[in-house]
Amino acid sequence: MSPTATIARVTLRRLLRGRALWVGAAIALLPTGYAAVIAAKRVEGFADPLSVFGFVQLVLAVLPALFVASAIGDDIEDHSITYLWSRPIPRWSVAVGKLIAMVPVIWLLSIASWCVAIVAGGGEPTLASIGALVIVGTALSIIAAAIATLAPRYAMALTVV
Q1: Which residue has the higher pLDDT, 67 or 76?
Q2: pLDDT of res. 48
Q3: Contact by Cβ (8 Å): 147, 155
Q4: What is d(CA 81, CA 77) in angstroms, rounded to the nearest whole number?
């Protein structure tokens, strides 16, 4: 687990130093504006939670592509993964390390996006909806890692599709 933890720390450090986190946070704020506009247009004064949750799901489709697929795809394209695989570490530790670093960020952004958007729309988030975001975020991140491993050059675009 030591190589996996090291790769996770380096990946998280690269994420915190780059612009991708800021772009992801800006994308995650989009459902808040949507919920506020919908709530302002409705007579009841609140947005439909299902439509807001649907918008959050669209955002959740972009976040794993932005973080996981691009991180793995960039490492393969830059040939830094070749260097890592030539070291005496298990090959799976590279992908798992990146997932360990990126998945909690995706959880945090998607859950924050959902909670702020639903409150802006006049509702309140349920524990079941938050659990669904955690499960879907994890599954989409694993799928993004698989796509990035198979097609690194077009990882982000294929993951979004």
Answers
A1: 67
A2: 76
A3: yes
A4: 8
